[in-house]
Write a structure and sequence with these properties.
457 residues, alpha/beta, Aminopeptidase, Glucose Oxidase, domain 1, 2 domains, 8-stranded mixed beta sheet, 16 strands, 37% helix, 24% strand, elongated
Length: 457
């Protein structure tokens, strides 16, 4: 009898597996687009709870709401909370600012940066020095900076198609601008909002003072992009103009909060854990629908889709809603601390924290072998216009997570509009497109299904 090459025997098996996966992804996308709950969950969180800055009443209400939704869904084997102490920073009354140019007051929109101290009760009035980089700041030195307000006016680079690259390139002035300016005797900092669009929405975000003594802290605020353009233009006309701003923010003692965890026990390898999540906290200027309400409800939808299509994961799947990503990252740190304490074996972690826009692909942190394996599933995603599989940052909440062998992935939605809303007062539910949100949930679920079925290398 003639021997039939093994390859020919395998072809029908490989073809069946391919068809099986195509059918399952089709089921996943159909469930997300016709029978999902993520949009209604986000509607409630955004419009009934509102802003969820860590340590706030809103954050606690969000913990209670999402835990109750997980428990009542019947999607999980258990739902529980992980205690985590978080910072409590309070904005206080609305900030005010104006350009004082030849005795004419021109009001401009500002907001305090998260973690900043307040101005004195009557505010600060001082001359302004405009800088575009930390190097330029240092070149001016104490002689030119002392007693002035430093105006950091470096726009996000419009040349990058990948918007997050531009965000990363401009972020140091927000994070460390006050720290560096204080070393040269500045009395305050005003930072151009990190956004491409010219508008009147100032964008907040975290800043820090490093290890300098508290006596050297100076107040820091963001100015809208329109306000930054106007201030820069007016400075060119009158370098001696003055700027006034007032803010009343303050920091209180740390408070108790929680990560919310829903767990589906694996049918074959319950000891191996797959994590998917987003961060439950938001900044306080808006309800944080894109950042990161969208990521939370998309992660919750994974369990809902699995139930709808009758899929029981082989590995344990955890949906984790992390607390305090925006101004501390303590939820992610606490999750890792407990994972190590309990000697847990995580094989895969995925985060959605780039908005609820149309999904384009994934950003992977892994070795080349696993990158090649996951990239090999591109053809399964092509019908859904998912095409970008790149190496890169996965997510802040899963950044601290370690395990013996771990693949980390970030969902990559289209990034072009994200920074129109990021950390600003217009990051509200009306900026969410239901279909785009659901497509993101389906894309997330599809990759988790494939990882669960085939594992990692």
């Amino acid at each position: 009898m003639k021997k039939i090459p093994l390859l020919f025997l395998l072809i029908p098996i490989l073809g069946f597996a391919q068809n099986s996966d195509e059918n399952q992804l089709s089921n996943i996308y159909k469930s997300a687009l016709t029978n999902s709950k993520c949009y209604s969950w986000l509607d409630y969180m955004s419009n009934n709870i509102g802003p969820r800055l860590s340590g706030s009443t809103g954050a606690q209400k969000a913990v209670e709401y999402t835990k109750a939704q997980m428990e009542s869904s019947g999607n999980y084997d258990k739902v529980y909370l992980q205690e985590v102490m978080v910072p409590k920073w309070v904005r206080g009354e609305k900030e005010t600012a104006y350009i004082l140019n030849n005795k004419k007051k021109i009001i401009v929109p500002i907001c305090a940066l998260g973690g900043s101290i307040a101005t004195p009760g009557k505010g600060i009035t001082a001359e302004v020095i405009e800088v575009h980089s930390m190097e330029e700041l240092k070149s001016f030195g104490t002689e030119k900076i002392k007693g002035k307000i430093v105006f950091f006016n470096r726009p996000m680079d419009p040349a990058n198609v990948e918007a997050f690259r531009s965000y990363g390139g401009a972020g140091d002035q927000r994070r460390a601008g006050a720290l560096e300016a204080s070393k040269f005797g500045a009395v305050g900092t005003i930072v151009r909002s990190l956004a491409f669009r010219l508008d009147d929405f100032p964008h907040t975000g975290g800043m820090w003072y490093g290890d300098i003594p508290a006596s050297q802290y100076i107040p820091a605020a963001a100015i809208s992009t329109n306000g930054a353009e106007l201030l820069s233009k007016t400075l060119k006309q009158n370098p001696n103009l003055k700027f006034y701003f007032k803010q009343s923010c303050h920091k209180e003692e740390d408070v108790l909060s929680y990560n919310v965890v829903g767990e589906i026990k694996g049918t074959e390898h319950p000891e191996k854990i797959i994590v998917v999540g987003g961060h439950l906290d938001s900044w306080d200027l808006a309800d944080g629908s894109h950042d990161d309400g969208a990521g939370c409800v998309q992660s919750m939808e994974v369990a809902n889709i699995f139930k709808n299509i009758g899929y029981k994961p082989k590995n344990t799947v955890r949906v984790v809603l992390f607390m305090n990503e925006e101004n501390g990252g303590r939820g992610g740190d606490k999750y890792q601390e407990l994972a190590q304490k309990n000697k847990e074996d995580h094989i895969f972690a995925m985060e959605s924290d780039s908005g609820g826009f149309t999904p384009r692909g994934f950003s992977l942190e892994c070795d080349q072998t696993n990158f090649n394996k996951i990239s090999g599933w591109k053809n399964l995603f092509e019908p859904y216009l998912i095409h970008s599989f790149t190496m890169g940052h996965s997510g802040s909440d899963i950044e601290a997570l370690t395990s013996t062998k771990l693949v980390k992935v970030g969902l990559k939605p289209d990034s072009q509009r994200y920074f129109d809303y990021h950390h600003a007062a217009n990051d509200t539910f009306d900026a969410i497109n239901k279909r785009e949100l659901e497509l993101g949930a389906a894309t997330t679920t599809s990759l988790i299904y494939l990882i669960d079925k085939y594992g990692i290398e």
